[in-house]
Amino acid sequence: MRSNLLRHIRQITLSPETKKSRSLRVTIYVVLSVLLYFLFIGNVLPERYDYHVGSIAEKQIKAPTDAVDKRATELAREEAAGKITRQYNRDTAVEQRAVENLNKFFETVERVQDDPAFTEADKLEAIRKANLQAMVKEEQLKSFLAVPVDSLPGMNKEAVRIAENIYSEEIYEETMPVIDTKLDAQLGYSELGRDQRMVVRELVKTVIRPNMIYDKDETENKRQEAMQNVSPTMIYMGEIIVKEGERIDEATYSKLKDLKLTDEEPNYLMYFGFAGFIVLSVLVLAFYLEMTGSKVGKNNLLLLCLAIIIVLTAAGMKVLSLGESLGFATIGYLTPVAMGTMLVTILFDTQLGILLAFLFAMFTGVAFDSKFQFVFVSFIAGLVGTFAVSRVKHRMVIMRAGFIIAGINLITITVMQALGSSGTEVSQYLQSLLFGIISGVFTAVVTIGVLPFLESSFGILTPISLLELSNPNHPLLKKLLMEAPGTYHHSLIVGNLAEAAAEVVGADPLLCRVGAYYHDVGKMKRPLFFIENQLSKDNPHDKVAPSLSHLIITSHVRDGLEMQEEHRLPKPIRDICEQHHGTTILWYFYNKALEQDKSGSVNVDDFRYDGPKPQFKEAAIVMLCDAVEAAVRSMNRPTPNRIESVIHKIFKDRLNDGQLDECDLTLKDLDKIADAFLRTLNGIYHARIEYPELPKTN
């Protein structure tokens, strides 16, 4: 099953369209977001309870977040609104109308009393028509006819005075029953006779109306304003809502609903908010990869590998977070953040490892209820892991990094425990230290175990695997040494040249060296057909046709690829082998074919390598190194000037033939490579003095 998986991955690697497909890249980001969402949504959403009013709480419930206590807030607002009294507006027109009605009534009575033409019945009818809102009783109206005319002005004046005095105060509908008392008090100061006072009293009473009019709109506005000024009653995170064994009353149940802790109140806003958090986190990663031009952002296979590392690290956090329910309060110190950052740093680059340390620390906060001590310790551990393996050369460096992380964990955990020392027990502190040590060592062990699988599955070359391939004890190199020693020696020199050249143009020196070691392993199939392995002067090519010699020579590329695939060498090494001759021409055999040709049918393209041309810097560098080393080695006296001349000639030929058109080497890079070649070759082929023979002893 694993071999099928590796074969499938290789097919994806060989497809440029799939590797660079934007739609596939977006799909990977979307799937990553979905996986992270469902991994952590259970940690974000609080536990919900099937309780109702009157239920007994089976355990203590604390508020998982801040929320507004709607019931308490509503009660507080209703109380504030209840304190606002009814609002009234004073109506001065009421007093004016009362005085006008009194004056009008007395004028009517005085007029009919003075008119002899009026009979008693006419007078009563006229007074009845002038009756104030038909409030004066009939017998009171008749009593006005018995009042002497000269007494009417005094009564009128007194009635107006009493009315004005009463209206000088605020009169509400609710205070109307006390008007009689006020009238009696005012009449106590009157000089009128008893009968006249009683008549005036009844008359004034009929015109008294409330001068304070209820303003319903203003009252409602005041109450609304008072309610708005009441701050919401808050339920704060960590607040105990109900203790174990307590009965849930209406107030408690209302709080549970406000916190979305009941089955009937799902917190859709929290679902949406966490989805936004995951999307933003993945977008930060995506924008970083796009803006920095990272190889991960351009290669969907590498992006898939990165996504797998992220999901594995997040899954580790999820599993560990379940340990909190088992009573391990400090299990968050075990989070495998350093594992994720070390894998990313080794497989990709240090900058990406630093970014992932930050993202993983945030995921730690999600997994462990936003506890700062876990976030801080995991972030520091992730950074330390990144820096500790940034220049890894062998697997023991990873183990050493694990011990470094463990040591740093002890320091950071101690700092965090000191910050919360008020509630820290010695046993809990010791447990935290133990988890910190285990975290460092465990992440190193897991990293060492997972790394080879990721390297082989995704065809990623790391410095570790390159150094392992450069070991002379590798089966393929040992076989090359035994069966084609000349080619082996040639490959070593090409490796030195390639490493020196790669350093000056920003290519991968280690990849160049290792690629050079394996670029000619195909010559082992027919070693004597290659001049560096011919110990005698007999050349097998003298006995075969030039076309056959061409097939034999060019077949070493195909044979080398087969051998490398058999030994499961990484794809970049195989690419260097396949591309190190490009589509160059075997001029020796082409010229030999021309000499033997009688019909003029020889085509120069029939004597080219199959290619392809070098597609990346390292392959182009090995091509140039291979040609230059072979040319310089064939020289009788390789002086510096002659070496320089050969280097420039080979570079010019490769440029004119278009062999460097498909890689990203510039002319400036070629100048630097030429200088590096010259320095290295002068060191190898420098002039030597001839040592004299030792004198013979008697």
Automatic annotation (TrEMBL):
Entry keyword Transcription: no
Gene3D superfamilies from the UniProt entry: Hypothetical protein af1432
GO MF annotations, alphabetized: hydrolase activity
Superkingdom field: Bacteria
Cited SUPFAM superfamilies: HD-domain/PDEase-like
CDD domains: HDc
Keyword Lipid metabolism: no
Keywords tagged on the record: Hydrolase, Membrane, Transmembrane, Transmembrane helix
Domain HD/PDEase: 483-640
Alphabetical list of Pfam families matching this protein: 7TM-7TMR_HD, 7TMR-HDED, HD
Residues annotated as transmembrane: 26-45, 268-289, 301-320, 374-390, 397-420, 432-454
NCBIfam families: HDIG
Record-given protein name: Metal-dependent phosphohydrolase
Organism: Tumebacillus avium
